[in-house]
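Listing S7. Sequence submitted for prediction.
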Amino acid sequence: MAVITKKICMLGDFGVGKTSLIRRFVEQSFSDQYLSTVGVKLSRKSLEFSDLDQEAKLLIWDIEGQTKFKAIAASYLQGAAGVVIVGDVTRSETIQHFQDHLNLFYSANPKGKAMLVLNKTDLIEPAVSQKLEAFLEEAIANVSGIYQTSAKTGTNVDTMFERLAKELIIAP
């Protein structure tokens, strides 16, 4: 089985749940305690795709989400094959910043793959997150997928990361 290593960056505003999504995916755990990421934190996880006879080793870069940090974040994005851009469905301004995060990522990695994540869906009615997803599908192009997730319950977390990893393996 061939092994491919891919760098994935997590982008999004402060407090949207980037670290919690990574913890859910890598460690299968969740904590209500909020810990702010300072700079960047690296995590690793391997996924096997027997149908492709490939193993993906993911290097996941959890990048600080404060606005003042944007100038420095660009250097962390260099060499990333993919990005997961996270918004908090309870804070609409975090979703309104998706395009800014996409532009930042694509300026460093024009051929990269992007996923948009509407996180914390366990805190709102399903109809609200479905409307947000439908809006994003029409408003934002150049993304591989839009997912409604909950780091707390685990909803769609593994599915989203696995789909991105598979697309990165298949991509030229």
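Caption to Listing S7: primary sequence and predicted structure tokens for the chain studied. The beta strands are 2-12, 40-49, 54-63, 82-88, 113-119, 145-148. The radius of gyration is 15 Å.
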